[in-house]
């Protein structure tokens, strides 16, 4: 004989367990659908690597890993980095061009990770015009963004393709892993030589308030001042240094979402220190980037048919919150099976 009530209790547990299993399946399915939909509507053909890839404290990039990366060259020598955003346009930093800009002095190299060797993937383009953001301030580094129109449209290939642009509403959360690439100096000293092969390094974005405090103290600015302006983004290490170097200016900081890469920042400025007459990258400060999507109206005014994408980059807290229902349901299911 079964003890009184045990049969009913077993039936009730079976009913609860069946409904919880159904609920768990629905939650997991909904979560995967939402995550799959985020950032899925991007510019056609942009932000795709032909191979999976990975500066200062970085490593050499693989061929085709960053097909939007360009070298902006002045009188035939590498001057700055840049990012291809369409067949005819490159975005770079305003500080890379000394006004009055002589368009004929510049050319753009595309489709190659080496800037000193001639290869079959290498493509050069003359520059039709350079458009500096009219609000660029060389003292504060605000609006450090420039558009470069190529003389003729470029044939897009696996080795040469544009990066996707973010909608103005998107703010990349702190602690988001992103990648910065360039041919900048191989050593912290400003006078060191450029890298021959494109370098890449992963960095994490830094909260703007935290970054402002760090730079405010270093620059001895009064409380309430914000050296990190609204159109800037910090990324890198708060201990030591990990990120871009002199010579990387104008290059891309890109972040990936669902297999597509988006331009989150343009290499702008960093802290430096001078000891015994030698100027080096200062340790303990992240790199500072211009946020191109803070200038979307200006970009759209100058670049025909440009498009921007709304992307939901997950924050650590959001990721943890999304996991709670699944973990809770799994815990209950395990308890019911005991």
From TrEMBL:
Database matches in PROSITE patterns: TRYPSIN_DOM, TRYPSIN_HIS
GO BP field: proteolysis
Keywords for the protein's UniProt record, in alphabetical order: Disulfide bond, Hydrolase, Protease, Signal
Residue intervals of the Peptidase S1 domain: 55-304
GO molecular function, one term: serine-type endopeptidase activity
Domain of life per record: Eukaryota
The keyword Methyltransferase appears for this protein: no
Protein name as annotated: Protease, serine 27
UniProt organism field: Chelydra serpentina
